[in-house]
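#onboarding

Welcome to the new folks! Below is a worked example of what a typical request in this channel looks like: someone posts a single protein sequence, and someone else replies with the predicted structure as tokens. Don't worry about understanding the tokens yet, we'll cover that in week two.

Example request:
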Amino acid sequence: MSVAANVTAVLVGLIITGGANTVVPYPEDCASGIRNLGTLTMLRCEVVGNVGREYGGGIASVHGLLNITDCMISHNTALMEGGGLYTEGGMVNITNSVFFGNSARAGGAIASLSVINMKNSSVLNNSATGSLLNYEGEVSCIAKTANVLCHRI
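Example response:
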């Protein structure tokens, strides 16, 4: 699924699964589940079991606004960065959501080149091989401009 630049979309209660992106050119190489270049709000959705060729196995948001609320992002894989979520530019707001069991070479759950505001959310049991430019871990901020604000209430 793709949200184009200058487009606003809202997804409620959907399950996005089984995507497999094999396209090489950027930004088409981003995401196999959901690619956001516009403004996307996700509410009570599941993004599960997608495999991305390069960036964002589950979701990629490139220069867009992404709002994720009450969602489960799980068991997605990216061959490079951001198994669950890859962000570049724009802003991401994550509330009451779970990133579980995602994997990538860098940022098993999330790889970010954006501002991410995360509230009341969990990042659990994700994995990264760490073989990409020494970035690894469940959440990887891979640029000096990246900023992850985590709020616990």
